[in-house]
Amino acid sequence: MSASRGASVLVVGFDDQAASLAALRTAADLALRLGADLHVVHGIDARDQPVDPDADVDTWDNYRHKALDHLRAQVEQALAAHPGAWTYHAADGNPGKLLVRIADEQEALMIVVGTHRHRSLARMMRGSVSRGVARAAHHPVLLVADPTGR
Description:
Residues 10-144 form the UspA domain. Pfam families: Usp. It comes from Lentzea miocenica. Belongs to the universal stress protein A family. Strand 1, helix 1 (18-34) and strand 2 form a beta-alpha-beta unit. The chain contains 5 helices and 5 strands, in the order E-H-E-H-E-H-E-H-H-E. The protein has one domain: 3-Layer(aba) Sandwich (Rossmann fold), CATH 3.40.50.620. The radius of gyration is 15 Å and the shape is globular. Strands 3-2-1-4-5 form a 5-stranded parallel beta sheet, sandwiched between helices. The N and C termini lie far apart (32 Å). By secondary structure, the chain is an alpha/beta fold.
């Protein structure tokens, strides 16, 4: 579903983590209460690429398309019953910087992102998207905790 022109917008970050799904659900609920549209954003990063760095270009493209299609399907499923307008946007780049840039472009009411209670080694190496967004954003940021506690 496409967002309405000139409507208030909530920007929500999405990846394949439980906290991200919780953030999407929270943002959808808030959007209804505030009469706002949702703009779901995914920053394409290393997790959307194949593990084998020596794979040929076709393998990389196929893997990337499947990963991105899977994420979009998750968003569509999560928002299937959402009566409000929403859009989905996936782009290359640092997810935190992408969320801040799009929130600025959309003049968002708020940015909604999931946050993890415990940091794995992989998350420590990549850095925290939620922490980066909270530091750099020019809009209010709502952090939604991982409901599984992982």
